[in-house]
Specification:
There is one protein chain. With 441 residues, this protein is mainly α. It has 14 helices and no strands. Helix 2 runs antiparallel to helix 4.
């Protein structure tokens, strides 16, 4: 009976969040497709140079939302309703602080950031436009991520999924309208992306209008312990997203030197497809977070481990299917985005896909194990995993392997890094589980 209940909870939350995250990842994938069709290789290059900043914004929203949602769910399961509301209030303060920062960066520093990449001409102009507009929409992205996480932890995963998919569908439709009939170019692509979280929040609004929400803003003095708790639990989510942006910056710089603009455009296709794959793993991880936090809050460790087993088996099945599709369908996938039928772009991207996506099972494991640690109030091992895969291993590995194997070495850096970090993750999981058993004895 208990196993059936755990499986039902896992299936309900994970399936809804996987679908929702796939929809959410279509923000950038839709941009990639329509920009490739409407603006060609230069448009793809500009989009790829600006995407890392989107990762910073999205990662900040996930950090606040996932961190706050985890703390809220644990307090709620322990019947600490007042503390749970204080957590939500602290989260709102953090959203305001981060939103002001991103908007100021967008107003004053967009051109300076783009100039760091060493591009000029039309690529510079398109990159600056995309970057500036996405930063000005940062408050909407941040608030949407927070509300999605809290509504999911407030026993409404279906609504959270509907909002993610609804926002993404609006982006796809508006992308086409703004780029083609309206001829708005790169501004149309980014404007459609910026409007998407607003549509998502409108879909979430009935949860508040009908007063189904159990979390509320409360008048209280901001407490540093709440801020620390939220940020500590959410840092792995931030690092996961931000690291993808940092890795893209490093990869762009190296590939620009090795293969020029065409190489960057090829990596743009691979990186954006990778966002969709990582979104599947993030969907599984976000799906198990409320269930693990609830069971952990009630000290039901058997339930926690059962949910983890289901998550890892599901991840492995997804990874096998994804790599088979990528390996055998690489050429067809690239042709979808290669509107100019550039043979060099096709060759670079096809080889890159088959090497880059070897990382699938290792990346999936790392995303899920990090969420497990934070959901069970073990943020430190999650921090270790996130920082290793985000910065400490991937960056030197990219430089080393690109020196040894040129562009092939660049593609191999990601799977090698994820594999090494997965080994560390397994060791940390075994150590913590053994230590918990010893404490119980």
């Amino acid at each position: 009976m208990l196993r059936s209940k755990y499986f039902q909870d896992f299936t309900k939350y994970a399936s809804l969040n996987v679908m929702g995250m796939i929809g959410l990842s279509c923000y950038i994938l839709a941009d990639t497709f329509f920009v490739a069709k409407g603006l060609g290789t230069n448009g793809l290059t500009a989009l790829n140079l600006a995407i890392p900043i989107y990762s910073f914004i999205h990662g900040s929203g996930l950090m606040i939302g996932m961190g706050g949602g985890t703390q809220y769910s644990i307090q709620k399961s322990r019947k600490n309703h007042e503390t749970a509301n204080q957590v939500f209030t602290a989260v709102l303060y953090l959203v305001v602080i981060f939103a002001v920062f991103f908007v100021l960066v967008g107003i004053f520093f967009s051109g300076a950031i783009v100039s760091l990449f060493g591009v000029n001409g039309s690529v510079f102009d398109m990159s600056k436009t995309y970057l500036q507009v996405i930063l000005l929409f940062a408050p909407a992205f941040l608030m949407n991520n927070v509300l999605l996480c809290f509504v999911r932890n407030d026993s409404a995963p279906q609504l959270s999924m509907a909002a993610m998919i609804g926002g993404s569908l609006s982006n796809v439709v508006l992308d086409w309208v703004f780029i083609f009939p309206c001829q708005m170019g790169i501004f149309g692509a980014v404007f459609a992306t910026g409007l998407a979280p607003i549509f998502s929040m409108l879909i979430l609004s009935p949860h508040f209008i009908r007063r189904k929400n159990q979390f509320h803003f409360t008048k209280c003095r901001p407490e540093s312990r709440l801020f620390v708790g939220v940020l500590s639990s959410g840092v792995p989510s931030l690092v996961t997203e931000v690291s993808s942006g940092v890795v893209m910056i490093v990869f762009n710089s190296i590939i620009l030197h090795l293969e020029g603009n065409v190489g960057v455009a090829a990596y743009g296709i691979i990186a954006n497809l990778s966002l969709v794959v990582i979104a599947i793993y993030t969907g599984i991880a976000q799906g198990i977070q409320p269930v693990i936090s609830r069971n952990y809050g009630m000290k039901n460790f058997g339930g926690v481990h059962a949910i983890m087993r289901y998550a890892l088996v599901t991840m492995l099945i997804f990874s096998a299917v994804i790599y088979m599709v990528v390996f055998f369908g690489a050429l067809q996938i690239i042709n979808i985005f290669n509107s100019e039928q550039n043979v060099l772009l096709q060759n670079i991207a096809t080889e890159g896909l088959r090497l880059y996506f070897i990382a699938c099972p290792f990346a999936g494991f790392n995303v899920i194990i990090s969420t497990y640690f934070t959901s069970a109030e073990r943020p430190r091992p999650a921090h270790v995993i996130s920082i290793l895969r985000g910065f400490l291993v991937i960056i030197p590995m990219t430089f080393l392997l690109s020196w040894i194997g040129k562009i092939h070495g660049v593609w191999c850096a990601f799977p090698v890094t994820e594999m090494l970090v997965a080994v560390v993750g397994v060791l940390l999981f075994v150590f913590i589980r053994k230590r918990r058993k010893e404490m119980q004895i």
